[in-house]
Amino acid sequence: MNETLLMIPGPTRVAPRVLKAMSENIVNHRSAIFGKLLTDITQIMSEVFKTNNKSYLITGSGTAAMEAAMVNIIQPGDKILNVVSGKFGERFMQIVDSFGAESKVLDVEWGEAVNPDDIKQILDEDENIKAVTVVHNETSTGVSNPIKEIGKLMQNYDALYVVDTVSSLGGDEVDVDGFGIDICVTGSQKCLAAPPGMAAITLSDDAWKIVDQNDSLSYYLDLKKYRKGGKAEPPETPYTPAIPLIYAMHEALNVIIEEGLNQRIKRHQLAAKATRNAIKALNLELFPREEVSSTTVTAINIPEGVTDAELRGTMRNKYHVELAGGQDHLKGNVFRIGHMGNITHRELITTISGLEMTLRELGFEIEMGEGVASVADVYLPQNL
Ligand SMILES: *Cc1c(COP(=O)(O)O)cnc(C)c1O
């Protein structure tokens, strides 16, 4: 593997067996052998989404699935409620804007989670809202939004419930049918721990009804074609997919099933707890309120007296650990530790110990080993 340890919120570390799967021979994507593979993958995808509905793979990054979710349900002039609590919530809003629909924004302070009551209030006041978009795990701020609670209230409204689980599916609780999600999207390179370049989407019957009433605003992302391909014999994608990435997705999903989804989520919860405890032990400050903080990425305020470049630069160049910076107005103010995908205590101990050395080197009076000890503590059998 590459020497640099990726501790960023995507792309994440890819297991050697997944990388190896990509080197399989290229096959005809309109063949029985490919059809079987596609059927397998989309079935496992639905299992991971926890839905009885079909899932579809899109060649493209997570944003392609976000765009697919929007362009198939909106027409110019439609009104969509976009919950914006960070960069990715904003992206849904920009997609809606760019296709001529009207975005009503529910602005949430960055670092906070949305209050479901605020969504309810807007839906009560405006019955023309066609869909509500929520980002489950707002990767830019390290906050988890309460998609289960929002799902509960959405049952009383006709508006479709669209959820971005790009940085949570496979790492945090997502239950598409149980939470009443109409359209759910994800990407390959975050908690699923496959290489970047694939996205997945699933739609409820209610969502398909709206899709069927609309002409898609996109040619490539017209989901009716994906549905038609899925029903063909053998099943196929509408256009040539990135076949090596399909192999990788298949193997990455096999890894998830072997580990067990619940076990995997638990592993992510432990990693989040260990990271937060270490950060507190080192007298650093979490950016979001701890109660709303993410299970897959931790955002941390950059302490006074050090720059982002010094902190992450030292981590990268000296300790070979790649951390993420802040986005937009958080640039230079926060750094982020991704603990999604194939992360265990081993990677966390390396990361936190590198962080301790970095902080000491940069002049902070921290007690060496305290961060590492609080990581180790979380994983001791008697504490599990
Ligand atoms: C990474 C991410 C995306 C998609 O980004 P791509 O770069 O297009 O894969 C969307 N939403 C969230 C919450 C993400 O973390």
Verbal overview:
The protein is α/β, with parallel strands linked by helices and 384 residues long. It contains 13 helices and 14 strands. Helix 2 crosses helix 9 and helix 10 runs antiparallel to helix 13 (370-379). The protein starts with a strand and ends in a 5-residue tail after the last helix. The structure holds pyridoxal-5'-phosphate (PLP). Pyridoxal-5'-phosphate binds next to helix 3.
Map the helices and strands.
Layout: E1 5-6, H1 16-21, H2 32-49, E2 55-59, H3 62-71, E3 79-84, H4 87-98, E4 102-107, H5 116-125, E5 129-135, E6 137-138, E7 143-144, H6 147-154, E8 160-164, E9 183-187, E10 198-203, H7 205-213, H8 223-231, H9 243-259, H10 261-281, E11 297-301, H11 308-317, E12 321-322, E13 324-325, E14 334-338, H12 345-361, H13 370-379
Parallel strand pairs: 1-12, 3-4, 3-5, 5-8, 8-9
Antiparallel strand pairs: 2-10, 6-7, 9-10, 11-14, 13-14
Helix pairs in contact: 2-9, 3-4, 9-10, 10-13, 12-13
Looking at this protein, list some descriptive labels.
single chain; binds pyridoxal-5'-phosphate; 3-stranded antiparallel β-sheet; alpha/beta; 7-stranded mixed β-sheet; Aspartate Aminotransferase, domain 1; 13 helices; Aspartate Aminotransferase, domain 2; about 375 residues; 2 domains; 14 strands
